């Protein structure tokens, strides 16, 4: 039996990891913030420790062999320091507490750490920019550097995972926001919509995480993770619209015009201290307008990662869950077109 600590255990990714580890018969400890309902975790035998990334009880690391660090401040708006405080300094405390105590520390980063440009089969050999487009991605780059420093200087057995756009049941943040914008008619195609989107279904990511935790000889390594299929922005967004019975986007803008608009709109909003991001930011331009195709060859080769859920199946599972939990957001259901997906062999 493995004894594991999962941060962010009540969130989208963390809750699925809890399910997977309990199914294996593992002993699970969850770091849960004060005021968060952890009843379902406790009912299933999870040891719940109250605290956050800034402060937790000393017993948090009692009987822990592996750490899955999923908790983070996410989004594309806010100061760099706000993101750093949680995503870097919070991580530092976890890393320091883990030295000499755990046999594997799996840190969840993001494919967003790469430069905000078009990518065509980019792999882990590409250097990361020292300065990024927003606080979240800046802090995730710094967090990766910190985790690798602990591996190199203190021999902490760290593995870093860089998932793409995660989708699946229980996503109560990104998918609802996309649906809300689709219903409001404010989703535009930036360019043709045929650019690649770096999707990864939640079950595929959990599979990769378990491999990263258990595979010998991968300490200090970094892995790109996607579904391993070419999925375009249109295939994903139109699939969501059709599967939920809401209108597809029809407005379109050239990428160059969207880039210029984001360049003036975002700094102006920051200067005026807007509490919410403007309609177009550099991060949203990247999501909707850039080609985001990344190689997962290293994960296939070294981890034995072989995504088990294809995109079409994963999307249908996701939308079935959404229709059940958010019926008020859905209209008459149309059949979801089955896209022709090309296996990414790079």
Can you give a write-up of this model?
By secondary structure, the chain is of the alpha/beta class. It has a domain at 3-164 and 199-226 and 293-308: NAD(P)-binding Rossmann-like Domain (Rossmann fold, 3-Layer(aba) Sandwich), CATH 3.40.50.720. It is 40% helix and 16% strand. It is built from 11 helices and 15 strands. The strands form 5 sheets. A 7-stranded parallel sheet has the order 3-2-1-4-5-7-12, sandwiched between helices. β2 (27-32), α2 and β3 form a beta-alpha-beta unit. The chain starts with a strand and ends in a 21-residue tail after the last helix.
Throw out a few tags for this protein.
disordered C terminus, 11 helices, alpha/beta, globular, two-stranded parallel sheet, Rossmann fold, 346 residues, seven-stranded parallel sheet
Concise account of the structure shown:
The protein has helices at about 10-25, 40-45, 80-100, 135-155, 175-185, 200-215, 235-245, 255-270, 280-290, 295-305, 310-325, and strands at about 5, 25-30, 45-50, 65-70, 105-110, 120, 160-165, 165, 190, 195, 200, 220-225, 230, 250-255, 290-295. It has about 350 residues and is an alpha/beta fold. Strands 3-2-1-4-5-7-12 form a seven-stranded parallel beta sheet, with helices on both faces. Strands 6-15 form a two-stranded parallel ribbon.
